[in-house]
């Protein structure tokens, strides 16, 4: 099942709750939440208080993408705030396996994010422990960047790894994704599509409907 995960990094924070309600009305199921610490990535976004606040009014699956050094320090706090899925960058964890185990012990789904230059082999020994792999299609840190074309091959390679090993996890892609370039990513094997700018810029409901149309068309061809 293909799902859209709108990234609230591109939302209007003055009316964040209203915009999330629009997404729910449009049938969205996932909300992608980018947490940046100003250390692993240059920018600082928002943290637990914002997540806890939107949790009160939303039943969406909170897909929390931590761009944070040593995220193991904050896992309980993000669970408390309302995370359903926590994704950590392989490079930010001194002990990746332990970090994944801790996320699972908390009863949450665990994801590992892979940067454009990070090889897939960091996943080799944790394949059976994870629920999702997030392939970054831009360098993490900012919304609104153009997709890096070489990341497409990485999605294909990951899909092949899944088929070869019999592992089962979602493949999420994140960064620079628009209605007019999403199809190649679906074709490559991605099934959770993050989009910030292309969802929040302009009419949110129309943008979601345009993505959904693409997803339906694609599923129809399979
Ligand atoms: C980048 C973030 C992305 C970003 C996507 O570090 O992880 O989730 O918000 O935004 P767009 O779709 O605008 O590239
Ligand atoms: Zn993200």
Q: Name the average pLDDT.
A: 97
Tally of contiguous helical segments:
8
The CATH homology group name: Aldolase class I
The name of the CATH architecture is Alpha-Beta Barrel
What is the CA-CA span between the terminal residues? 12 Å
Please name the CATH topology: TIM Barrel
Helix content: 25-40%
CATH class: Alpha Beta
Q: Main β-sheet, in a few words?
A: 8 strands, parallel
One letter per element, helices H and strands E, the order comes to EHEHEHEHEEHEHEHH
Strand order of the largest sheet: 1-8-7-6-5-4-3-2
Number of domains: 1
Question: Which structural class best describes the helix and strand composition?
Answer: alpha/beta
From the spread of the alpha carbons, the general shape counts as globular
Got a strand count? 8
Estimate what percentage of residues fall within beta strands: 15-25%
The residue ranges in which pLDDT falls below 50 over 5 or more consecutive positions are none
Radius of gyration (CA) equals 16 Å
Bound molecules: D-xylitol-5-phosphate, zinc ion
Task: Describe the structure in your own words.
With 222 residues, the chain is α/β, with parallel strands linked by helices. It has one domain (3-220): TIM Barrel. 36% of the residues lie in helices and 19% in strands. It has an eight-stranded parallel sheet. Helix 2 (48-55) packs parallel to helix 3 and helix 6 (182-188) packs across helix 8 (204-221). The protein is globular, with a radius of gyration of 16 Å. The site of zinc ion has 6 residues, from strand 2.
